[in-house]
Design brief:
23 strands; alpha+beta; 610 residues
């Protein structure tokens, strides 16, 4: 039997291995301890700040916009709660982002490729960190997403106030609309506190009173985990609701006016002539302002932009030839300059000769012998051709500007045009050629280079029937704080007086009463049974015609514009209305009946049939 010598523990190979392993483990622990020492002691302050920065986050709380009410307290623009699906572009990206989108598509019952494509489009459209993927989510869908929020990092449901317009397209051009900021807006407005996913007033009152309506945002300090999920609310600064507006307009008038323009392109403005307050301003056709919040499909937007009636344009503040409605201004100038007397007559054979040119009356066989009142009643062009020649363009322009034409009305409405009152200096500056006498004749009957807005015409008629006082148009009566208390109240502002004597204004009103109630009245379609109405028709040519052609025989864009302005009751007017029908044809047949129906509703309360 052979015996092996006994080895000492130091010589045992197994023990050697144990010692090596122990030394290695100890070495690694030493490195770990040194690393921990470096992180916690040497770089401790730095990493504590980084950790705090990662765990605390400030969330902006949207401020509800102030409401807009009509004069009776009817809501014209307000807010309703809306659920928006937001995706954090920093977390929802790459392969991990695709996993999140697939889970989301499954929950929503949608196709993943389509959802991803929508997300890519939204990322390009909105510059915000959190991209709005879908708005107006169903409450059941919200509950399904929130129940799985732990598995959906970067996905957030935001409850925010959504703008709501009860009257839809009927108040579109007056109230305006809001929509999200784009990248260009953000560059301009970031300094004013706007952020990428904010909404802003784009048109109408929403744009004009943006600073009052928008409110003040709040802030929420929250603690989030590494994947951006909210774990704890640390502090809250509540948002402040925007201030609200009470208007002078009546929502019922807006609805009636819009219904009366159904199927047409045009505008209606209604004033209280006793103080210049606006009771209605409607343009047709309109667009549902609620759609600007939800967004249009490309097909819907194409339909709007290619519509021949231009639904995005507010025709109440755009300028056009006023046609024969302007004859009231020409008559005022003639009386004040003593170029005519009320009794003086002019013979109308159906045309007026100026040198070698022939200027035709709208009635080819003429009106015979007419004085001032008869000329207004039958809208005789020849009478006003002669008056215009005797007055001269400088006198006509001077009175027109004194009456408020050629400049904005003072309403301050977005997009309002100033119109144009031409004269010799204007012609020379723009066309570098001298003024011709024939141009004066055209301006005298509301044609030529002359342009006015329906709003200006309403302001002018208001001053004529209220004794010459020129009021600045206004449509906001009160500004309210978030609790409904009155912060500011508005009252009428008198800008001046018409350069006309009371007798002149009285004659003009008499002529307009005849223009509705006389035997040969051009505006008889607006006549009421129990209320005396005064008014003036206007038919404005869009293109020059060598011979008279019926408007209805022309293509739509070549047809005349139809006008009618009216006031009632004649003795003590309490309402002024201007109706403009774009390419509508004759003022007496297209615009006057609309005014008559509106006035009938105003005095009798019966909703008109269209």
């Amino acid at each position: 039997m052979n015996y092996q010598p006994i080895q000492s523990p130091e010589e045992d190979p197994f023990n050697k291995r144990i010692r090596i392993v122990t030394l290695l483990v100890g070495f690694f622990f030493l490195i770990l301890l040194l690393k921990l020492f470096f992180l916690q002691v040497i770089k401790g302050d730095y990493y504590r700040k980084v950790a705090l920065k990662r765990s605390l986050k400030v969330i902006t709380l949207k401020a509800p916009r102030g409401n807009i009410y009509d004069r009776r307290g009817v809501l014209l623009a307000g807010n309703i709660p809306s659920y928006t699906l937001l995706l954090d572009r920093k977390l929802v990206r790459g392969p991990e982002g695709d996993k999140i989108l697939k889970k989301l598509a499954q929950i929503m019952g949608e196709d993943f490729p389509s959802l991803k494509q929508n997300y890519i489009i939204a990322c390009k459209k909105y510059p915000a960190e959190k991209v709005p993927l879908k708005t107006d989510l169903d409450r059941n869908l919200v509950a399904r997403i929130e129940a799985r929020e732990y598995f959906l990092p970067g996905v957030e449901i935001q409850v925010e106030p959504k703008r709501y317009y009860p009257l839809g397209e009927k108040a579109f051009h007056l109230i305006g609309y809001v929509s999200r900021l784009n990248a260009m807006d953000l560059k301009k407005l970031a300094s004013k506190g706007y952020e990428a996913d904010d909404f802003i007033g784009r048109a109408g009152i929403e744009a004009q009173y943006e600073d009052i309506l928008r409110g003040k945002k709040g802030r929420e300090l929250v603690e989030v985990d590494a994947k951006g999920r909210i774990k704890k609310i640390v502090a809250v600064e509540e948002p402040t609701i925007g201030e609200s507006l009470v208007l002078t307009v009546d929502s019922t008038f807006l609805e009636v006016a819009y219904d009366l323009l159904k199927g047409k392109s045009g505008a209606i403005v209604v004033f209280n002539p006793r103080d210049g307050r606006l009771l209605a301003m409607t343009s047709a056709p309109g667009v549902d302002p609620n759609k600007f919040i939800e967004g249009f499909s490309s097909k819907e937007w194409q339909k709007i932009t290619k519509n021949i009636h231009h639904p995005l344009l507010n025709k109440a503040v755009l300028s056009y030839h006023p046609g024969s409605t302007f004859k009231i201004l020409t008559a005022m100038a003639g009386l004040e300059e003593k170029v005519i007397t009320p009794q003086e007559t002019v013979f109308c054979p159906g045309y007026y000769r100026l040198g070698r040119r022939i200027f035709r009356c709208w009635r080819s066989w003429g009106h015979g012998k007419v004085d001032l009142l008869k000329a207004i009643e039958v809208s005789c062009d020849v009478y006003f051709y002669k008056l215009g020649e005797e007055l001269g363009i400088e006198n006509i322009a001077r009175y027109a500007r004194a009456a408020g034409f050629g400049k904005r009305t003072g309403l301050g409405f977005p997009g309002e045009k100033s119109g144009l009152v031409p004269d010799k200096a204007w012609k020379l500056k723009v066309f570098k050629v001298p003024w011709q006498k024939g141009e004066t004749l055209n301006v005298a009957i509301g044609q030529g280079a002359l342009r006015v807005t329906p709003l200006q015409l309403g302001k002018f008629l208001t001053s004529v029937v209220d004794g010459g006082v020129i009021y600045r148009p206004w449509y906001v009566s009160q500004i309210l704080d978030p609790y409904g208390e009155v912060l500011k109240e508005f009252s009428p502002v008198i800008e001046g007086k018409l350069p006309a004597k009371k007798r002149t204004l009285k004659l003009l009103k008499e002529g307009m009463v005849l223009a509705v109630n006389g035997k040969e009245a051009t505006g008889k379609a607006s006549k009421l049974k129990d209320v005396t109405v005064g008014g003036k028709t206007g038919t404005a040519q869009v293109i020059g015609m060598k011979k008279r052609v019926k408007s209805e025989d022309l293509s739509y864009l070549k047809r005349d514009h139809a006008w009618f302005m009216a006031f009632a009751p004649a003795k003590n007017p309490e309402i002024v209305i201007v109706v403009f029908v774009e390419h509508g044809g004759h003022g007496g047949s297209a615009a006057a009946p609309i005014a008559g129906k509106f006035l009938k509703f105003y005095f009798e309360g019966k909703w008109p049939t269209t």
